[in-house]
Write a structure and sequence with these properties.
globular; about 90 residues; 3 helices; alpha+beta; Ubiquitin-like (UB roll)
Length: about 90
């Protein structure tokens, strides 16, 4: 079941997306990121930056967990962190 929340982009991810934050409607992190890729398909930098990012879901690091296994909560927040903004790659 899809839930609603907010994706926040930091540093290079923010520049690539062209927005600081946007809403999501998804059940998993994978679904939220797939929808973000589709929304920003016309922005080639977004597709280059996103794979290098780390993610926090409601303040918890995703780490190496599969994105389709990370469930999202209603009203939750996904933080998208490029490596130089605290990301781990």
């Amino acid at each position: 079941m899809s839930v609603h929340g907010t994706i926040r982009y930091w540093a290079a991810a923010k520049a690539a997306a062209g927005v600081a934050e946007e809403p999501y409607q998804a059940a998993t992190l994978a679904e939220a990121l797939d929808a973000a890729r589709a929304r920003h398909a016309a922005r080639p930098d977004f597709a280059r930056v996103l794979p290098r990012c780390s993610f926090l879901v409601d303040g918890d690091p995703v780490g190496t967990r599969a994105h389709d296994a990370v469930r999202l909560a209603e009203g939750g927040t996904v933080e998208v962190l490029p490596p130089f903004a605290g990301g781990a790659r």
